Amino acid sequence: MTILLCDPRVGAIPVQDDGEPLVELPAAFGPAGALVRASLAQRLMLARGRLPAGVGLRVVEGHRTIEDQRAIITAYATELLTARPELEAAELLTLTSRYVAPVPVAPHVAGAAVDLTLVDREGNELDLGTPIDATPEQSGGACYFDAPQVTGQARAHRDLLATALTSVGLVNYPTEWWHWSYGDRYWALSTGAPAALYGPIGAHQVAA
């Protein structure tokens, strides 16, 4: 059974944030210049070194502001309600959290998550079955990491990505093959850690 980020068990995880800073990922991870917590950056460097020759990691997003997170939540919830106006609030929250997390538990807002993919030595993205950020509706569910319709090279690439990232302690959000995190509440629940290492970062902390 897939545990979603809106699950009360995620929100019940305590946070013991020691204020570890955000750092910018180097150009080797692509042009986005994503900001992530320092320990996550170190683990991504290790994971990159464990990929086969000629295969790299491209990170397209790291830390996300609270305002940006809320905007994505609103846009996707509106899209869902337009298609299904009969949705009750609880079901809307559940469906929305397949794609974007509630702010208090959002790994991106904590600087604890990256959206990423694999690239070849020329920087061309490899086939992983769907584009990054494809919604469950757009992809027919193929955005789920274990989607049975994803086979062949795309499945092999997903497995390669998972092997490299899990080997350095990251966890996947199973509704999004591209989303991996370390140190957030979802990571803590998934690994059995007693507390999350990172909580939401405010604008003043990013500026610092």
Number of strands: 6
Q: What number is the mean pLDDT?
A: 95
Q: Tell me the β content.
A: 5-15%
Summarize the helix and strand pattern as letters. HEEHEHHEHHEEHH
User: Any idea what the radius of gyration is?
Assistant: 17 Å
- Percent helix, as a range, is 25-40%
Quaternary structure annotation: single chain
Number of helices: 8
What structural category arises from helix and sheet content? alpha+beta
Describe the structure concisely.
This protein has 208 residues and is of the alpha+beta class.
Give a structural overview.
- Helix content is 35%, strand content 12%.
- It has 208 residues and is of the alpha+beta class.
- The strands form 2 sheets. It has a 4-stranded antiparallel sheet, sandwiched between helices. It has a two-stranded antiparallel ribbon with strand order 1-2.
- The longest helix has 18 residues, at 66-83.
- It is globular and about 50 Å long.
- The N and C termini lie far apart (40 Å).
List the helices and strands and how they pair.
Layout: H1 8-11, E1 22-24, E2 35-37, H2 38-49, E3 55-61, H3 66-83, H4 89-96, E4 113-120, H5 136-139, H6 152-166, E5 171-172, E6 179-181, H7 185-191, H8 203-207
Antiparallel strand pairs: 1-2, 3-4, 4-6, 5-6
Based on the model shown, name its key terms.
four-stranded antiparallel β-sheet, 8 helices, single chain, globular, 208 residues
